[in-house]
Amino acid sequence: xxxxxxxxxxxxxxxxxxxxxxxxxxxxxxxxxxxxxxxxxxxxxxxxxxxxxxxxxxxxxxxxxxxxxxxxxxxxxxxxxxxxxxxxxxxxx
Length: 93
Prior knowledge:
Layout: E1 11-14, H1 18-30, E2 36-39, H2 42-52, E3 56-60, H3 68-78, E4 83-87
Parallel strand pairs: 1-2, 1-3, 3-4
């Protein structure tokens, strides 16, 4: 198992719901994750990721401009080493 340094890893959060971003960021902050950036716009997220190659991206699946799965596909092109966690608040199977 590889130890992760929470203070230096760059984590990007992408969600169209500002309250989810705020809560997730607070949770990560409380766990010692200091390098967290939040985005509500998938295009801005992808542009920033292309320049900075985050270590981890947490992406909402259901968003109005572009689905999380489409964001993940595009992210793989611009930052192939970024690990991705997808999430959703929808309870529809």
